[in-house]
Amino acid sequence: MSEAARELAGGISYRDTGPVPAGGPAVLCLHGWPQSSYMWRHLLPALGSAGRHALAPDLPGFGDSPADSPGTWARHVEAVDRFHREAGLERVVLVVHDTGGAIGLRWACDRPEAVAALVITNTGFFPDYEWHAIAQTMRTPMQGEALVDSLSRDGLATLLQESSDGIDDRAVDEYWKAFSTAENRRGMLELYRSFDLDELRPYEGRLAALGVPTLILWGEQDDYLPRDYASRFAGEIPGAELVSLDAGHFLFEDEPERCAREIVDFLRDSDPR
Q1: What 3-state DSSP class applies to 109?
Q2: CATH tag for 5-270 (out of 3.40.50.1820, 3.40.50.300, 3.50.50.60, 3.30.1780.10)
Q3: 29 CB-near residues (< 8 Å, 6+ apart)
Q4: Burial group, residue 78, by CB count within 10 angstroms (0-12, 13-18, 19+)
Q5: SS3 per residue for 169-215
Q6: Spatial distance between the Cα atoms of 124 and 19, rounded to a whole number of angstroms
Q7: CA separation for the pair 199, 220 (Å, rounded)
Q8: Measuring CA to CA, which residue among 231, 220, 229 is closest to residue 254?
Q9: Angle at Cα 73 formed by Cα 88 and Cα 95, nearest 5°?
Q10: What was the pLDDT predicted at 21?
Q11: With bands split at pLDDT 50, 70 and 90, how would you rate the model's confidence at 210?
Q12: Closest CA to 30 of 81, 86, 74
């Protein structure tokens, strides 16, 4: 596996396979909490080998990107738009996971002209979303501060590795960067506390209205999200392809080769433009 090059655009650090002669829309990959662009380390080379230009930013306060206070949902959507502009991107295939889904899908609905296809993986974008225990803690004043301020690297390793056998010590080191400064820790609390699910009501039906090829790639053994979210996405987006894997929430850690193969095949078959 070759390492994607590290670059900087709009103050955001990102991994980039580099442009390819074949052209076509670039693939923009957005990570969730508490990961970074490192979660796409297997997918990016596979996309590059398939002739796709792929980019994966570290969202503000994660990986090698500095926090950008306030770290709210809207602010992260603005960061994606800034990155898209500063990186010189046009229409993109948007790949999202976890909180990167709430951020990226909102951006996609706000910027429909910029989206050529969607790959939706283990995330939520529904007004009736049910917060899991960690998210509830982070959304609660004092409890959230106690959690992020007391969490050690070893504690993060335990949390992540209980959910995925594919997260090794190198991955823990990369994801620990989100906790490396007080600004980062405050930023992740601002993000979770800014998620107002009522703000999703105007977006109901908007993913379907995009009218783009869509792959729902889902880890069925997710401890954080209801299993029926995958079928809900598939039911709401006409023509969406649903692929379920025997994997957990961190499916790109659990089944990296299978995930890469499914996405490469989807892009080959759907040929988004």
Answers
A1: helix
A2: 3.40.50.1820
A3: 37, 40, 43, 44, 54, 55, 56, 95, 96
A4: middle
A5: HHHHHHHHHHHCCHHHHHHHHHHHHHCCHHHHHHHCCHHHHHCCCEE
A6: 31
A7: 27
A8: 220
A9: 50
A10: 66
A11: very high
A12: 81
Comparing CA positions, the residue from 171, 160, 190, 181 lying closest to residue 65 is 181
- The string of pLDDT tens digits covering residues 107-147 is 999 999 999 999 999 999 999 998 999 999 999 999 999 99
Q: What's the whole-number average pLDDT of the chain?
A: 95
| 3-class secondary-structure state, position 27 | strand
For residue 5, the surrounding DSSP H or E stretch is strand 5-9
Which residues, other chains included, contact 170 with Cβ-Cβ below 8 Å and sequence gap of 6+? none
* Amino acid sitting at position 6: R
Helix 143-150 and helix 182-194, axial crossing angle in degrees, nearest 10: 140
Q: 254-259: which pairs have CB atoms within 8 A and are 24 or more residues apart?
A: 254/164, 254/165, 254/166, 254/219, 255/166, 255/219, 256/42, 256/43, 256/166, 257/42, 259/42, 259/43, 259/121, 259/217
What ranges do the domains of the chain cover?
5-270
Residue pLDDT, tens place only, 89-118: 999 999 999 999 999 999 999 999 999 999
CB–CB of 214/96 below 8 Å? no
Query: DSSP characters for 230-245?
Result: HHHHHHHSTT-EEEEE
Both structure tokens of 208: 């379907």
Q: The tokens 């609390």 sit on which residue? A: 189
